[in-house]
Amino acid sequence: MKNSQLIYGIRAIIEAIDAKKPLNKLFIQRGLKGDLYKELETKVRKNGLSVSYVPLEKLNRLTANNHQGAVAQVSPVSFHEFEPLMESIFEKNTSPLLLLLDQLTDVRNFGAIIRTAECTGIDAIIVPTSGSAPITEDTVKTSAGAVFNVPISKVNHLKDAVFYLQSSDIQIVGATEKTNDSIYTVDFKKPTAIIMGSEDKGISSSLMKLIDVKAKLPLKGDIESLNVSVACGVFLYEALRQRLS
């Protein structure tokens, strides 16, 4: 968590949540009790915040200040509310191109993807509130500052985002090796949301059931897959190629 802004102390974190500060993650000491802690727990659950319950030693390593058993990492960027962001995009663009990242956990991969998304004109990136890579200083650096130019929205469940997009006539394209269809058969000129899966497991099975179009990259080598940021770049540039032709 080096170079990241921290908030420490239960009351300070509660106030940050109430003020809608963009919090990446909370670290709470295991075994905490008391009314103030219960209030924090309630707000964490209500806001779908990502939290890890850790030993006291972990918190002491994060900060030398009086943390009272709770430390929060502040994101360097603010996140957009999903539905208002989508409504704004749909008003401006008749054929939006969106990117959904399913449980992507590496901050550098995240940064690289954001950079490519900005270069290819992605309208927004959508990630789950829990289990997704935080936006840290490393993310900002790897994105070459693009993180400040691409709207990013956090949602409690990507499935709900998919349902919303499908109801708005957005085709959902999943990048997966579990298909015989090539990326080059997909019509990316349509309003489209591309889903990229996690580094190790790919797209979750629950999301896979909802996908309209599954597509894979052709591979001729012995290695079975590309790094997710590289694969995402190929998908985004194929979409851009079609839209420019």
Short key terms for the protein model shown above:
six-stranded parallel β-sheet, 36% helix, four-stranded mixed β-sheet
Description of the structure:
- By secondary structure, the chain is an alpha/beta fold.
- It is built from nine helices and ten strands.
- It has helices at 10-18, 35-46, 56-62, 82-92, 107-119, 137-142, 158-167, 205-208, 228-244, and strands spanning 5-8, 23-29, 51-54, 70-74, 97-101, 124-128, 152-155, 171-175, 192-196, 213-215.
- The strands form two sheets. The protein has a six-stranded parallel β-sheet, with helices on both faces. Strands 1-4-2-3 form a four-stranded mixed β-sheet.
- Helix 6 (137-142) links the parallel strand 6 and strand 7 (152-155).
- The N and C termini lie far apart (44 Å).
- The model has no long low-confidence stretch (mean pLDDT 92).
List the helices and strands and how they pair.
Layout: E1 5-8, H1 10-18, E2 23-29, H2 35-46, E3 51-54, H3 56-62, E4 70-74, H4 82-92, E5 97-101, H5 107-119, E6 124-128, H6 137-142, E7 152-155, H7 158-167, E8 171-175, E9 192-196, H8 205-208, E10 213-215, H9 228-244
Parallel strand pairs: 2-3, 5-6, 5-9, 6-7, 8-9, 8-10
Antiparallel strand pairs: 1-4, 2-4
Main beta sheet strand tally, sense and closure: 6 strands, parallel
**What general form does the structure show?**
elongated
Cα(first) to Cα(last) distance is 44 Å
Please write the string of helix (H) and strand (E) elements: EHEHEHEHEHEHEHEEHEH
Helix tally?
9
Binned, the helix content reads 25-40%
Low-confidence stretches: none
- Please give the radius of gyration in angstroms: 19 Å
Oligomer class: single chain
Strand order of the largest sheet: 7-6-5-9-8-10
Computed structural class = alpha/beta
- Strand proportion: 15-25%
Mean pLDDT: 92
Please give the number of β-strands: 10
